[in-house]
Design a protein that fits this description.
Elements lengths: L24 E5 L15 H6 L1 H7 L3 E4 L27 H13 L3 E6 L9 H8 L5 H4 L3 E2 L22 E3 L5 E3 L14 H16 L4 E4 L24 H19 L7 E4 L6 H6 L21 H18 L4 E3 L8 H4 L16 H11 L9 H16 L4 E5 L20 H5 L43 H5 L5 H15 L8 E2 L6 E5 L4 E6 L5 E2 L4 E5 L6 E2 L3 E6 L1
Parallel strand pairs: 1-2, 1-10, 2-3, 3-7, 7-8, 9-10
Antiparallel strand pairs: 4-6, 5-6, 11-12, 12-13, 13-17, 14-16, 15-17
Helix pairs in contact: 6-7, 12-15
Bound molecules: alpha-D-glucopyranose (GLC) and calcium ion.
Amino acid sequence: MSQSLVPTLSPMALDMNPDWWKTAVVYQIYPRSFADANGDTIGDLAGLTSRVPYLAALGVDAVWLSPFYPSALADGGYDVDDYRDVDPKIGTLAEFDAMTAALHAAGIRLVVDIVPNHSSDRHPWFREALAAAPDSPARDRYIFRDGRGEHGELPPTDFRATFGGPAWTRVADGQWYFHLFAIEQPDFNWDNPEVRADFLTTLRFWADRGVDGFRVDVADGLFKRLPGPGSDYTGDPWTPRDELDRRLDEVYAGWRAVFDEYDPPRCAVGEVWAEPIERRLRFARPDNLGQAFNFDLLRANFRASEFRAIVNRNLVAAAAVGASQTWVLSNHDVVRHATRYGLPLTRPAAPNEFPPPTVVREVEWLKSGGVEPVEDVTLGLSRAKAATAFLLGLPGAAYLYQGEELGLREVADLDAADRQDPTFFRSDGDEIGRDGCRVPLPWTPEGPSFGFGPAGAHLPQPAWFAGYAASVEAADPGSALTLYRELMSRRKQLLTSADSGLTWLDAPDGVLGYARGGGWQVWTNFGDLPAPLPAGEILVATSPVDGTLPPATTVWLHA
Ligand code: GLC
Ligand code: CA
């Protein structure tokens, strides 16, 4: 393993503001589906590096790279064999360094995914644990327990794994190990000092290589209450929540100390699906991870009242703990928002309702193979553009997911034989899973994989991808890609250094308008009828405006 360190950055290219992440537009790359350089049908780091000019033209401030570590891909790379290496199927550490250097030279920061809740079952520590005796130090790095029942034949608790099936799997000597997700993803024991120390080593390993920040997978889930030595507790693993969260605070305070060893300090964003909002923001405090994903908009209907309530609630709650804001409409775990907005609206979610009605509707649609309810493709895309423009005007950081800038919608009609997501297999097909947003990107209208690589793609691409290819859209002034480029370059000009809050403007029903510093206004028509066009110089419009603000349209204007 090479020890070469490549963080010598050109100060010309990178914005040296240590708070860059608070207002950044971060573009998520799912590396195996982004660009394939060597023609083995799997996206790789060399492919990504070759596309840095595309990212620069798009105008994003940072890339969040989903796991690229050695992995058998039992869960798309979120099953990590080695936290301090690159999967040989997609590159080498030298290629990682070259990619980092290319991104930095283009003024783009790099955030990598850290997966602390679980390793893969091929991690050397888990192999060692399997070979070791019950109650050995090697087993203590994970969560091994004896089973219940006369011969330990019953799992220690009835808790179910997130991907379906029991959360416990039995090993040859009769003990059981705990996994919140797939069988191949054994959970670490975060009370074990070696586990804690090893993650600090991993953070430093990547920070030393020039990585600017970390996205923390399942950030709120590391501690669980399980039956253990001296306890026969078999109830809900998430109680008492506050005590578990206090232990997490302590872990992340240690991480924060590592981040602060660097200049500028490394940043972090936690994946926290938890409600209520106050609990999520616990992880976004400046002395904790600093940021946590806000998934509220990703579960909302395209409706003015829902968007406004979500924005208000988040601005108030984040300000109360001194956290910066994040906004998300899509990622590698959810149905693409161009599809979400093309499905009929549902009732709004009740407070803390899970799953929210929007998600129930998406699941129904996926199960029907994308047939029922009927997707209105044109409306979905217009609304997606309008929602993105609404979001990119808000104070805080925005996280985009690869392909949304092309207006891609969910691929719903993949064959069962082609599916890869463990949620599909572990639920016996009852849940369709997340492959439909992970189909390799179209770069050109022709070619064996629409320019994704010189050969095919590891998930089949639909014929309609041809019309959404990056090269086609780059040449089309009305495309989603052109719009995203305009939004990002305008945003850079309009953001004032203070990134002050927003002021809502008087607007007719179904329309939201807000003002930012310096005369910048954002207006979105969420309704079905044209609304009056507010006065001012139009800077960007998500669809052609002709004296009115058309339905499903956002404009940025200078008042
Ligand atoms: C996170 C990831 C998801 C993964 C899971 C288990 O939710 O975003 O893709 O399956 O964690 O690591
Ligand atoms: Ca490849």
